[in-house]
Amino acid sequence: MGFVVAIDGPAASGKGSIASRLGGVLRFPVLDTGLLYRAAGVALERSGEDLDDEAAAGSVARSLRPGDLEGEALRTREAGEAASRVAVHPAVRSALLDFQRTFAAREPGAILDGRDIGTVVVPGAACKLFVTASPEVRARRRHTQLSAQGDPATYEAVLEDIRRRDARDGERAAAPMRRAADAVLLDTTDLDIDAAFDAALRIVEASRDRWERS
Ligand code: CDP
After folding, report:
1. Which helix H or strand E contains 30, and what residues bound it?
2. Bridge partners for 128 per DSSP
3. CB 3.0-4.6 Å disulfide test: which of 33, 83, 113, 130 passes with 38?
4. CA 43 to chain CA centroid, nearest Å
């Protein structure tokens, strides 16, 4: 395995922006694993099946193709909600595991962001970050993003989404969102994206020095 950076944390904590900027600096491929769950949720909804139907959700997750990971439909509020509902099913999580682990095995390294990368997908990752921020700040960021996409949802509705998703993702039995014991906590509540990225880069560089010496 190369130098893997595992970035976990709740919705709109900044982990996606940090991951993509780190990818540019390190020149490593980046996998936004949330897209896999979003694609599974959206495909299941389109097929008219119930999001709570584990067997149907597992079968949709097993048949995802790379082209299913593209498109604006995955970025909506509804897609985020559908993703977190299908993400509770062990059949869905296990269907998506191989793809994520194969990606993580790319040389000379890879960056993955999600909820369970440091705990379940790549527990041996050389660098683990858990990126968080207060629910209010995360809701403000997500509200700005959604408004730019033309979504009329209010700040209050987005805050409620965030709280509901935090609870569902943190309380589910299968691979709940947790900070790995060896993950560095990065709270971005009072940081803009440049400051959050600088802090993340310092953590990654320190891990890389240790990893290269080991
Ligand atoms: O961008 P945002 O943080 O809102 O969501 P995302 O990272 O695209 O993830 C959407 C949902 O997928 C999350 O709420 C989780 O329920 C689920 N997910 C997961 O269970 N495990 C992952 N590794 C990534 C996402």
Report:
1. strand 30-32
2. 6
3. 83
4. 18
**How far does CA 75 lie from the centroid of its chain?**
13
CA separation for the pair 58, 73 (Å, rounded): 20
> Could you tell me the two tokens for 52?
């709570």
Q: What CATH number does the domain located at 3-209 have? A: 3.40.50.300
Q: What is the pLDDT of residues 166-210, one digit of tens each?
A: 999 999 999 999 999 999 999 999 999 999 999 999 999 999 999
Mutate to test the pocket of ligand 1, among 8, 32, 33, 130 (most ligand atoms within 8 A of CB): 33
Q: Which atom belonging to ligand 1 lies closest to the Cα atom of 165?
A: 14
| 137 Cα: distance to centroid of ligand 1 (angstroms) | 18
Distance from Cα 165 to the centre of ligand 1, integer Å: 9
* pTM exceeds 0.90, yes or no: yes
- C-beta of residue 158 within 8 angstroms of C-beta of residue 146: yes
Q: Residue 109 C-alpha to ligand 1 middle, in angstroms?
A: 22
Q: What residue has token string 């191989």?
A: 98
Residue with the two structure tokens 């990606």:
103
Nearest CA to ligand 1 atom 21: 115
CA 98 to ligand 1 centroid distance, Å: 17
- What is the length of the chain? 214
Q: Report the alpha-carbon distance of residue 51 to residue 65 in Å, rounded.
A: 19
Rounded-to-10 torsion of CA 132, 201, 102, 117 = -20
